[in-house]
Structure formats: structure tokens, C-alpha cells
Amino acid sequence: MTTITPFAAGSYLTARNASNLSALKNQLNDLSNQVSSGKVATTYGGLGSGRSTALAAQATLSALTGYAAGIGVAQTRTNLAVTSLTQVATIGTSARDTLNNGLQSAAASTVAGRATALADLQTALDTLNQSAAGNYLFGGGDATTQPVADISTILNGTTNSDGSKQLGLQGYIADQVTADLGSGMGRLAVSATGSNPVTVSEPNDASRGTFGFTLGGATSSVPSVPAAITATTVAGTTSTPGTVSFDVTGQPAVGDSVTVTLKMHDGTSTTLTLTAISGSSDPSATGTGATFLIGANTAATADNLNTALQGALKAAAGTTLSASSTATAAKNFFTGSASAPIYPPHINNPSGTPTYVAGTKDNTVLWYQGEDSGTAAIDTQSVQISASASIGTGARANDPSVRNVLAGLATMAYALPATTSGDVNTGYQAVVDRAGQFLNSATTSPSIQDNVTQLSLAAARLTNAASTNAATQNTVQNTLDGIEQAPTEEVVAKLLDVQNRLQASYQITASLSKLSLVNYIS
Q: pTM of the entire structure?
């Protein structure tokens, strides 16, 4: 008789028992793996319905880890930028205070002030080249290029490959001062000795109104009747130079005075007042400076006034005008930018008839080498803090407030009187008036301090974002652990239960396998 094995008596029961034993064995293996690895499964497929949640959680954790890394780098960058800008602001504030305090003893303060200001300028420029992890902080969108040129090149210039010169700050200022001073009287001329009236005239060339002094008018404060000295002003036109003249028709009294107003290209002006003195009342009087001698007759008085005017003009040119020229040149120089590109105006023929011509990269050093687009500085560098938000952390060395402080330091370094001879007080005051305005940009809005505040707020936002992301990361990680991690106590309990069941099944199966008809009959 033929038997179909799958349908033989007892075959189904045997197959079912084998299947149950195999399932228990697989369950035992799974639980053993969970105990050793601590994971529910080694593949996402083994997680069942939780696999989609686990995949989403892993993606979120990966993104949060990336945000955390970016925020950490940005925090270092921003904190360094805040520290560096604070140092530049402190340098500017300290220089301004030192300059103002030096008015009490200008002669003792001026030479040391020049040296200190130059050192401060170098420190500020060096600070603006600060970097973090090889990335420069103050280059705007360009973090790989050193934003500020070499300090020696900035100050002293360099030589091009063809032998031509690129002017540095010192040479640029020197050209401006030379062009403004002319022959020493601010490009003005005084009529020859023996002339009456005594006339002061503007240059009759292309430099008029652009370089040196411009005549703003003249007055005579002579109470004598009729007036001993008559002042006349002829305003310049586009084709004729302006003049002022003093006609000495009588002898002034001691204390009588004449006044000349001089305008400068930075919009400021200065006034020269010359007072008549008697040689017998002031034996030491030389007829120069703020006084002029009453001569033996009107011709002699006119000559003395002529000499005094020349001396006063030279003194004003060497102090007030020189400070104005230095401030103008420093401000122009620090507008230069390589990437914009912005070239400071260049002075052609400074020792002759000077004219401004377009600057080029070949004739003037461009101190700023970083990115200089129209984008706000803070937005040139940013860090992603979440899927939909980012924080700007950028900064530029050529921010207007920073440039002003640099120009103020340069004005101090090159315009403060180099010696204690001459009219030190006037020269010192002229620098205070001009450099002080620049240095106010350290703290007076819009100021460097405004940039420090902006970056400090960015740093605070980064810290808050880091805390928020860390909390989110912990929550997501706990959710993922609840899906992927196998609870040790529960798994061990299940493992013992399966072991007992499997052992019992094996024992029963072994016992049943020994049964036979012979054993049953016996």
C-alpha cells in the first residue's frame, strides 16, 4: 500500500511541532541578539511599524548635529569679532581722550602723541586681520583673503614690477600737504614789499578752490576817523582769483587790528587777526605773527603789515591747513577697496600745479582687500540654525565707522606737531578739531560700538539656538531610543520564558520520539 507522506497519519502534527520549535529557536536568537546589542533589531525592517518614525528621527538628529557644528564655529567667530572690534573701539576712545587731555600741555604731549597714535594705528590694522580656524573675520563674504594689506605696505607703499610707485598712507598724506601748502602760505601770495595797499591773492591756476586756502574776506578794526587802514575784498570767479587788500592811508593806533578769513577744502575756516603794536612799547616785537609794528610812516607800516601777513599765513598753513590736509588725505586713503573697486583720488604734480586725477591700483595702495559688495556686512556670513532660519555673523574691516577711527589715528600720527618749536598749541588744537571728529566714531552712532552690539546680539541668538536645538535633540533621541533600544529587564524575562518553553518542548518531543507499539504493549 502506497502512502502519501504529507498526508500520512501524524505527519501534520510532526510538521507543526517542528515549525513551533523553529519559531521558538528564532525567537530565542532574536532575544539573545537584543540582550547583547541592546537594540530591538539590526535592520530597520526588524522595527516593524516603528521603522518610519525611526528613519525620520535619524534624519532630524543628523540635521541637528550639523546645525550644532555650524553654530559652534559661528559662536567662536562671532565672539572673536566682538572682542576685536571692541579693541578697535577702545583704541579710538583712548586716543580721543589722550588727545583732549593733551591740550593742557601741548608741547609736552605732541611728540609722544605722534608715536602713540602710530602704534595704535598699527595695532588696529593688525586686529582687523583676526582669523578663526583659518577664516578671516573682517573680509565680508571673502573669508580666505587677508582683508587688510600688510601694515608696512599700507604705511610706506610699495614698488610695482615696472618700477613705478604705489603710494602708501605716509606718501599719500605728504602729497596732499605739499599740494595744499604750495610755497608755504597755502598757495596764497602777498604783494611785494613796498606795495600799498598790501594785497593777498589766490592762485591764478587750476589749483584755486581745490587746494590750499581760499580767501573768505577781510576786515579792518581801526577806530581812527578817517580809517587809517581800509580793507577791501574782491571775491573770486570761475576765471579770476579772489583778493583781499589793506590800504594803509594813515597811522593806526596801538591795538588797532586787521582780520583775514581763510577757508579750507574740508569746509572749515580759520581767522587771522593782526594787531598793531608800538616798537617802543614792545621792544621784543618782530613784526610777525599776530602783531605788526607801527612804522615811522605809512609806507613803513604797510611793509610791516606785509611781513606780518606773510608770517601769519605761513604759520596758519603749517598748523591749521596741514592738519586739514592730513585729515582729508587720511579719509580719502581709507576709502580704497580692492574688490569694489574703489581707488582714492590721486594728486598729479603736487609740488607744481596740483590736480586731482582718478586713482588706480598702480598708483595708490588699496588697504582693504576683502569683499565689498552692496550686501550689509552682517549678512555676508551666516550660519543655518534650523531648517528655516539662519543668523548673520559677517563683518568688514572697511565699515565707515572703522575707517573713521583709522583716519583719526592717522591724522594724529602725521599731523601732530613733530617738534615743540613754533606755534604748537595752534597745531595741536587743529588736530584735536579734526582727528577728534573721526575718533568719535568709536562710540558715537553710527559707530563701531553699534557693530559690536549687532554682533553681540547675533552671539546671543546663536547661544539660544544652540540651547533650543540641544533640547530638541534630546527629545528626538529619547523617541528614537524608545523605538530602537531593547529594555534589558523585559528582554531577559522574555529570553528566560522562551528558553524554558523551548527546553520543555525539546524534552516532550524527545520523549514522544521514543514511543513505539512495543513500548506501548509492554
A: 0.83
